[in-house]
Automatic annotation (TrEMBL), chain B:
Name assigned to this protein: Hydrogenase
InterPro entries: ComplexI_Subunit1, NADH_UbQ_OxRdtase_su1/FPO
Gene source species: Eiseniibacteriota bacterium
Source organism superkingdom: Bacteria
Membrane topology: Multi-pass membrane protein
GO cellular component: plasma membrane
UniProtKB/TrEMBL annotation, chain C:
Membrane-topology descriptor: Multi-pass membrane protein
Keywords per UniProt: Cell membrane, Membrane, Transmembrane, Transmembrane helix
Location(s) in or outside the cell: Cell membrane
Keyword Transmembrane annotated: yes
Taxon lineage: Bacteria, Candidatus Eiseniibacteriota
Protein name from the UniProt record: Hydrogenase
Keyword field contains Transcription regulation: no
One GO CC annotation: plasma membrane
């Protein structure tokens, strides 16, 4: 019941918000549903219910991690949206809040479902729920972004559907019609009997399909456009929640492949896609002139790191999952801050922004702090994750991967650092309003809260979270440090 | 060499000129005219054969050779085809390639003769004739290949004989596709609409007619008969594909050829009156479609 | 080999070829309608016992793929000044040849895959793969936004073909979810196509190339 409620609360909220005539009350629906969702998620973490809704939904550490991150990011975005809606006309008009809540419902479905078919349905639903949020009728660029987002992601996800069907075939071919095909527990229980050829084909299609949604190179081309053109709260949601949900879908495939003992086939693929993504991101970050696109490429880099981490297995997987949680919160915070900058400066060009620390002290400080957090500097949560990842690479006898990763990340840090410091320092722009500007609490507190959380997690990992990370890593063949 | 094969060959040689006439008659009927009498082609042939030939001074021996080669190739090809549904007079393994090659030889000589006149009209006709052939010949080969794969036989006699009936029971869809493809090839090879317009005498729109514009007298008669025979051969091939008659008693199988050919001719007439002639650039599209159908048939059989 | 299923699959392939050779958008939409009807017949041919599941699936496929989707697409181009694919990078002949290559490749791959149990119709895997690749051909060679949506539909239909024959083994809820997702997806794509031609007055997706690095 509880699990069903986690999916249904935002879904019903979406309908209610759409039917509500008063625009002011829609924001209340948004924040209310987000808070309720977070509360329900917390309860689910506490109780860890085994299965619900006729076995369709279940709570497991892996899904729980993603669900928790999504829920926290969503609350922050919902609060931010309250302030944002006062200043900007929402895209999608009346459906803005409904689309946001529909996204939360579908992301929760992906995080909780045990059925690969439902997983696919939920993934495609996240695309469809977010597409209207990116689109702005008055802006041709947003039209281009939403078109690419829709087409590339839909095609990618369609390939994932084929992978899903292949998985069912692998089950039916080797195991016969015993147990429900595509049900995760049944697949895991009979994993070693699955037909290897079909399973491999299934994994390739799942990786390419959901990898498209996750922003892995070379299927990443939609991501900078969509994240760059979307309104800032939506960018934060896409980066902080949606990418991780897609990563979870890939991990579900890894789970089956790991249980079937086909790791030797899957891991090189993950490492290859991951390193390529990091390389592409680093290359496009050098000389990037648009700070929102810069953050978007940084997301691609993060996703590459996660893929490499899972591919390395062992401690590295633990590190990757910790990174996933940390990067999710940090990236959402950064995009929200970028939104604040965009509201005041009215430009996305990095060069035209300067003196942030003088003009908007809080946002400026958050931006600089966020830069260090996302670059896995201590004491933020990404640092232990990064350490575990590199340790895993070295311990696994693949030092060269660790070296390449460090080099690429150093490049990314330099590129982003130069841009962010250029924005933060220097004289404040001479404008009609005197610096510093009084910043809206609704717009500042959500990113601040997210960054504080990242800091706290970095200072000390709660035992419950550490246990969940270790358990989640174990399902895809990783181990705890 | 059997009596039924000889009988069927004799039958097709006699009725061949009827087919274009029947198709023309059908078009006339559907467009509300009466049309020429069915026996008109025979009268035309008799008239042409009684005339003397006039040769331009610019022509060479190729021009005079063409009618003989066209007719000879068609006659030999007729000998290869299992007209009685069993086996051809001179069938052998792989004779389907010889069949296609003989028809191509006739076309080559026709084109050369057209060029030999030195007239730009004939040259244009020859170019069109050969241009379309580059699309229709692959289609024909693919059709024959698909038939060979479907039946496991390499001779025309085999692939249109008893194995074909079994193949129809096994893979009707594939054979239907191949049959449709063959039908389109027939329209092109027999110079019928919507590829060519046999009724027109406007040089710019003609294909086959313009190539033989300079031939006269007995030469023209032989060429007309040769193209009618080609029509008949493709009609027989089509009839053989859709109607394997190997299990029928021999006289019936031979006799069934007559209504089958008539049906094909009438169908051609119906198509011709229902469709406008395609623009020249669209003809390759149609023939590529036919080739694709046949190729699909091949792909479906190769497994 | 299931005769009825094979014929339906062949016709599905034919409709794909038809899209490859035709440039007129309205004709493409009509062809996709026909393909939707064919897809609706497949659950009946899947060999699963006829029951509520198959009946709902057939009805749902018919309603969505042959009814609603074409209507959305037609709505999307109702104000379009140009209703032809003007500049495909390959002509109809090239399209057919690429399509044939796709079919050949699909059959080649399918024979190398281990025989799949639970597939009632033999030609299913190759036809599914071929449709997928032909969808990709359309996606990569056409420029009109609507043509791309049609390419996506071809690709999706190819995958759907595969899924339909697993009809007995995949819960109805999931199949309907897939249908619903495709419906909403095409609906939003239709909206975007409509906006694109309004905005650019040409519906040419090549002009959507201002975002780059």
């Amino acid at each position: 019941m509880l699990l069903l409620a986690i999916v249904l609360v935002p879904a019903l909220g979406a309908v209610a918000a759409y039917l509500d005539q008063a625009p002011a009350r829609r924001a209340a629906w948004l924040v209310g549903c987000a808070a309720l969702h977070l509360a329900l998620t917390a309860v689910a973490w506490r109780l860890a219910p085994a299965a619900g809704a006729m076995g369709w939904l279940a709570f497991d550490p892996l899904g729980g991690l993603v669900l928790g991150a999504v829920s926290i990011v969503f609350v922050a975005v919902a609060c931010y949206a309250v302030g944002y809606l006062r200043r900007e006309d929402p895209r999608g008009g009346r459906a803005f809040v409904s689309c946001l809540l529909a996204f939360l419902a579908s992301a929760s479905l992906v995080a909780l479902t045990r059925h690969f078919g439902l997983l696919w349905v939920g993934m495609e639903a996240t695309t469809l729920a977010t597409a209207p949020l990116i689109y702005d009728p008055s802006d041709r660029h947003s039209l281009e972004a939403v078109w690419k987002y829709l087409m590339i992601c839909s095609v990618g996800i369609a390939l994932a559907l084929l992978g899903t069907f292949f998985l069912a075939t692998a089950h039916l071919t080797a195991v016969g019609p015993h147990g429900a095909p595509l049900m995760l527990p049944d697949l895991l229980a009979r994993a070693d009997a699955l037909h290897p050829a079909w399973l491999r084909a299934a994994f390739v299609f799942l990786l390419i399909g959901f990898g498209t949604k996750m922003g892995l190179a070379p299927m990443h081309t939609w991501l900078p456009d969509a994240h760059g053109e979307a309104p800032s709260p939506i960018s934060a949601l896409l980066s902080g929640a949606l990418l991780n949900v897609a990563f979870l879908a890939v991990l579900r495939g890894c789970q089956v492949v790991h249980a079937a003992g086909q790791d030797g086939f899957a891991r090189p693929l993950l490492i290859g896609f991951g390193l390529l993504s990091m390389l592409v991101a680093a290359a496009f970050l050098l000389g990037q002139e648009n700070y929102k696109r810069m953050l978007a490429y940084s997301s691609i880099e993060q996703m590459g790191i996660l893929a490499v981490g899972v591919g390395l297995s062992g401690v590295a997987t633990f590190g990757a999952l910790l990174q996933m949680v940390g990067a999710s919160l940090t990236k959402a915070s950064l995009f929200l801050v970028a939104g604040n900058v965009l509201i005041v400066y009215g430009t996305k060009r990095t060069r035209e922004v300067s003196g942030l620390l003088r003009a908007m002290p809080v946002s400026g400080a958050l931006l600089v702090t966020g830069l260090f957090a996302i670059s896995a500097a201590p004491p933020f949560a990404l640092f232990p994750g990064e350490l575990a990842l590199l340790a895993g690479a070295v311990r696994g006898g693949r030092t060269w991967i660790a070296v390449v990763m460090i080099l690429l990340q150093a490049t990314v840090f330099m590129a982003m650092g130069a841009a962010v410091l250029g924005m933060a320092l220097g004289p404040a722009p001479a404008g009609p309003r005197p610096a510093p500007i009084r910043e809206d609490r609704w717009l500042v507190l959500p990113p601040l809260g997210l960054l504080l959380l990242v800091l706290l997690l970095g200072l000390g990992l709660p035992p419950a979270l550490r246990g969940a990370l270790a358990a989640a890593a174990a399902t895809v063949g990783g181990g705890a440090p | 060499m059997t009596a039924s094969a000889i009988g069927a060959l004799a039958l097709i040689l006699v009725v061949a000129p009827l087919l274009p006439a029947l198709a023309g008659r059908t078009v006339a009927f559907l467009t509300g005219r009466r049309g020429a009498p069915l026996l008109q082609p025979y009268r035309d042939l008799a008239k042409l054969l009684g005339k003397g030939a006039v040769y331009s001074r610019t022509t060479t021996g190729v021009f005079r050779l063409a009618p003989a080669v066209v007719l000879g190739a068609a006659l030999v090809a007729a000998g290869l085809l299992p007209l009685d549904g069993r086996r051809g007079l001179a069938g052998f393994g792989g004779d389907m390639i010889a069949f296609a090659g003989l028809l191509a030889l006739g076309r080559l000589l026709l084109a050369l003769a057209g060029l030999d006149t030195g007239s730009s009209f004939e040259g244009m006709g020859a170019s069109r004739e050969l241009g379309f052939a580059t699309f229709s010949e692959p289609a024909l080969f693919l059709v024959l290949g698909a038939l060979a794969l479907a039946t496991g036989e390499s001779s025309l006699g085999g692939m249109l004989g008893a194995p074909l009936a079994r193949a129809w029971a096994r893979a009707p869809a594939t054979l239907a596709m191949v049959g449709v493809s063959l039908g389109i090839v027939l329209l092109a090879e027999a110079s019928r609409g919507p590829v060519d317009d046999p009724a027109t005498h406007l040089e710019l729109t003609m294909i086959h007619e313009v190539t033989i514009l300079d031939h006269g007298g007995p030469d023209l008669g032989i060429l007309l008969y040769g193209s009618a025979l080609k029509f008949a051969l493709f009609a027989a091939l089509l009839a053989g594909t859709f109607l394997p008659r190997a299990a029928w008693p021999a006289p019936l199988a031979v006799a069934a050829l007559l209504p089958a050919l008539a049906l094909v001719a009438i169908l051609v007439g119906v198509i011709e009156s229902a469709m406008a002639r395609l623009r020249l650039v669209q003809v390759p599209h149609l023939l590529t479609g036919a080739a694709a159908l046949a190729a699909l048939g091949v792909v479906l059989r190769v497994r | 080999m299931d005769r009825f299923g094979d014929v339906v699959l062949l016709l599905v392939l034919m409709t794909n070829f038809a899209v490859l050779v035709t440039g007129r958008l309205s004709a493409c939409i009509r062809i996709m309608t026909a393909q939707g009807v064919l897809l609706a017949m497949l659950p009946l041919a899947s060999g699963a016992r006829f029951g509520v599941h198959i009946a709902v699936l057939t009805a749902g496929t018919l309603a969505i793929k042959a009814g609603v989707l074409p209507r959305i697409l037609r709505w999307a181009i109702r104000e379009a000044p140009v209703r032809r694919e003007l500049a495909p990078s390959i002509g109809p002949i090239g399209g057919v040849l690429l399509g044939l290559a796709a079919v050949g490749l699909a059959f080649g791959v399918a024979t190398r895959l281990p025989h799949a149990a639970g597939l009632a119709v033999e030609g299913l895997v190759p036809v599914s793969l071929a449709s997928l690749m032909m969808g990709f051909v359309v996606l990569t060679t056409r420029q009109k936004a609507l043509s791309l949506v049609i390419g996506y539909l071809m690709l999706e239909n190819g995958i759907y073909v595969f899924g339909l024959t697993l009809a007995g083994d995949i819960p109805l809820l999931v199949e309907l979810g897939v249908l619903l997702d495709v419906f909403v997806g095409v609906f939003i794509m239709g909206l975007v196509v409509f906006q694109i031609q309004r905005e650019l007055e040409s519906q040419d997706s090549r002009r959507l190339t201002e975002l780059r690095d």
